[in-house]
Amino acid sequence: MKALIIGCGSIGQRHDEVLRNTGLFTDIDFVSRRQQDGRTAYASLPEVKDINSYDYFVIASETSKHYEQLVWLDSNVSGRTIMCEKPLFADGVLPEIRNNRVFAGYVLRFHPVVQELRRILSGKPVISANVICASYLPQWRKDRDYRTTYSAKAAEGGGALLDLSHEIDYSLMLFGGFAEVRGMTAKVSKLETDSEDTVSIIAKTESGGVVTMNMDYISRIPVRKILAHTDEFTVSADIIENRIEFCGQDGEDVVTDFIIERNEMFDAMHRDALAGGTLGCTYAEGLEVMKVIRTVQEQSR
Predict the structure, then answer these.
(1) Judgement on whether residues 191 and 49 belong to the same structural domain of the protein
(2) 120-140 pLDDT, tens digit each
(3) Which intervals hold domain GFO/IDH/MocA-like oxidoreductase (predicted)?
(4) How far apart are CA 242 and CA 262, in angstroms?
(5) Which helix (H) or strand (E) holds 186?
(6) Can you give the pLDDT at residue 238?
(7) Which pLDDT score, from 0 to 100, does residue 149 have?
(8) 113 vs 244: CA distance, rounded Å
(9) Same structural domain for residues 115 and 254?
């Protein structure tokens, strides 16, 4: 098989590393204006020679470019699999994809802690859940000034709401669809960005539960946790510490630790997509995430 990666920033390079290590591809080329030593790279999608020779496409460019690139691909190839980094889009209408199978790159679905939490909650209505993702933007990419990254620039699809939409995706997966959404975004810190650095969302699920999600760029203490309550138990999932704590009606705590390798989730996500997809975020599910994002954006204007 042949793969084409569109974008060669840090995430594009990571996808390249993962795909090369699968042993499934004879060629992996790029669409990037950056020179790639010894690798085939094209400056733009229309310049790619024989676009139909590729079997798998990975859109790993800035969020603001996803719409144009995905629509172009769907108009020029068919019957292929496309992995589009999260979130699907920054703005504009949500296009109908007719000719290809598209997945959104919400890789945390493949985290063993999230998978185990999904198993624990299966068939158990969640009555309340609290989700938090807190981190410090200047520490994200230690080899780059955060002010030059797309995350700092609203026009390029940056901002905590879009960047940290993993939390919206796995909340929808774990707790079910949202019947009602209320949200607010704000720029509250002295970080030199023009994008929001704090997001708060409260949603009522279709089963009647309440989910709160808080995401930010401003925390020097990184936190990524899920606390979920049912009528029978409470479960806490720590995605950074790779740990689940379960407390049932007997009041006894059970703690389970997990081990995960650096690229294990990305490998699983790509293999799932190439096999047709059973766990990955489908295009339809990615659009549901976008609808929540749109709602919060509109309420924050």
Answers:
(1) no
(2) 999 999 999 999 999 999 998
(3) 139-241
(4) 13
(5) strand 178-186
(6) 98
(7) 87
(8) 7
(9) yes
